[in-house]
Amino acid sequence: MEFKNAVNADCEGHFNSSFCWPMNRLFAIAALIMVVTLGCTGTMNGVIRRDAQRVEITYTDTRVSAAELILVMPDGEKFRGKTEKFDRVKDLMENEADDISVHFQDLQTFNGNAKATLAGSKGNMMKCRFKVADYILGLKSGGFGLCQITDGRLMDVFF
After folding, report:
1. How far is it, in rounded angstroms, from Cα 128 to Cα 130?
2. SS3 118
3. In a 3-state reduction of DSSP, which class is residue 151?
């Protein structure tokens, strides 16, 4: 009886106090959903194979299992793009019709569950494949990847 009175004390003055307690739960659940869907930011570490230069990649989760990636290469070229689920069959079909796929031969053997295409500020394109530990949680769950630029540079990625 005391618990019921304590709950109802918070709801005094409401038009229909019987809905006060469930509404508080609803607001709490809505706030939790907003926090989860707003995403988080983090960094990934890249190492260019040719000269062992390090690159920091910033990601922002835009929704469940998708993120926006931004990085600046040592030569100043800025890349930006988004991750998406990797489907090997769909990717092979797209690459057959795509002349640019010849620039990304090293990615063909990398088995991952996510991919990204990033456009560079100096006209280059970067394609990445990632093996994400938990695809639903996204990049924050950890993993590794491989990126290749149209000029042939390769970059190993760890997160």
Report:
1. 7
2. strand
3. coil
Fold of 40-158: Lipocalin (2.40.128)
How far is Cα 151 from Cα 124, in angstroms, rounded to an integer? 7
| Short-list 81, 100, 104, 98, CA closest to 154 | 104
Task: Report mean pLDDT in 10-residue bins for the chain, 159 residues.
Answer: 48 54 62 58 96 96 83 97 80 54 80 94 96 88 96 96
Q: What's the pTM? A: 0.70
Which DSSP string do the residues of 49-64 spell out, in sequence order?
Answer: TTT--EEEEEEEEEET
Give the span between the Cα atoms of 43 and 97, in whole angstroms: 33
**pLDDT number for residue 6:** 46
| Main-chain phi, psi angles of 132, to 5 degrees | -90, 135
Predicted local distance difference test score (pLDDT) of residue 1: 45
Identify residue 59 by its one-letter amino acid code: Y
> Residue 27's pLDDT is what?
62
Task: Please list the helix, strand and coil fractions of the chain in percent, rounded to the nearest 5, in that order.
Answer: 35, 40, 30
**In the chain, where the domains are located:** 2-37, 40-158
| Alpha helix segments (H runs only) across the chain | 2-10, 20-38, 88-96
- Please give the pLDDT value at position 114: 92
